[in-house]
Amino acid sequence: MKVLVTGGAGYLGSITSKALEQAGHTPVVLDSLLVGPRQFTEGRAFYEGDIADRALLRRIVDEHPDIDATIHMAARIVVPESVALPYEYYRDNVAKSLELFDELEQLGKPRILFSSTASLYALQPAFEVRETDPVEPTSPYARTKRMMEMCLEDIATATSLRAIILRYFNPIGTDPDLETGYHLKDATHVVPLLAQTALGYRDSFTITGTDLPTRDGTGLRDYIHAWDLAKAHVRAVEKFDSVIEAEGAPYSYINIGGGDGVTVKELIAAVERVVGKPVPTTEAPPRPGDAVGAYANADKAARLLDWRTEASLDDAIASALAWGEKRKDVLGYE
């Protein structure tokens, strides 16, 4: 199977491309390199360009007429940045995706696997969320993801396009061979920041928000090994038609998470357990747009994709730390 991967030079896009290859499939990468490093495309069919470039999309399909599905991962993803730059987020995540969806449908490539986010769920009293639970996105980033979900629903209802929407929880770690990983120079996500602190690249880790309505006052997340997440994409493209058939609708929502909520303080304790030493911390108010948190009910992924997480939290943390030590050799910076 040949799969177009938008954002395939990014953190999760490159890991997913490798998982596709290991399963015997061929990724075709489309990435603007706005964020993703060129090194993560080496050895793969790669097109540098914008997802809204219809001429480029036609060229890709002309040169790869056997593309079976598209995994749409290209997006701006930093919550505080989305608060500061809402126009750029709505333009790049929503408007450009509409061009992509329409052109792929016209080209006869209607299978779309879309990377969404669990951060759009409304807060639940017990924090566990199912795909049918209410949504209440709290940042421009999360709202762009919800808008794209709604666009896919409407386009799929009106056209031949079909969509599987994966609502990710919080991926950490990298591929088993440490070939790609979290690449942003100025880390914004909690585990890369913790890893850099544990490795001595930062003086301390800042806990943002300590009076939230959770068991210890810090944000709660469902952490999942990035390799498990990548393998969920493989299952979804392999089972695409059967999922749509089982759903009885032209689109499907599926949570991809480990099914266990971990607070920031609990995560810090886990990192300390893995590295065998304390991680220095400071405290600060919550960042603009941050959600209190949630964890996945992943029963639907098990039922439709025959997928479950395999790696433990400690495994994922160890993977993130190992990549943190190696990434300077790969990317040239710590």
From TrEMBL:
<feature type="domain" description="NAD-dependent epimerase/dehydratase">
    <location>
        <begin position="3"/>
        <end position="244"/>
    </location>
</feature>
<comment type="pathway">
    <text>Carbohydrate metabolism; galactose metabolism.</text>
</comment>
<protein>
    <recommendedName>
        <fullName>UDP-glucose 4-epimerase</fullName>
        <ecNumber>5.1.3.2</ecNumber>
    </recommendedName>
</protein>
<dbReference type="GO" id="GO:0003978">
    <property type="term" value="F:UDP-glucose 4-epimerase activity"/>
</dbReference>
<keyword id="KW-0413">Isomerase</keyword>
<dbReference type="InterPro" id="IPR005886">
    <property type="entry name" value="UDP_G4E"/>
</dbReference>
<comment type="similarity">
    <text>Belongs to the NAD(P)-dependent epimerase/dehydratase family.</text>
</comment>
<keyword id="KW-0520">NAD</keyword>
<dbReference type="InterPro" id="IPR036291">
    <property type="entry name" value="NAD(P)-bd_dom_sf"/>
</dbReference>
<dbReference type="Pfam" id="PF01370">
    <property type="entry name" value="Epimerase"/>
</dbReference>
<dbReference type="InterPro" id="IPR001509">
    <property type="entry name" value="Epimerase_deHydtase"/>
</dbReference>
<dbReference type="GO" id="GO:0006012">
    <property type="term" value="P:galactose metabolic process"/>
</dbReference>
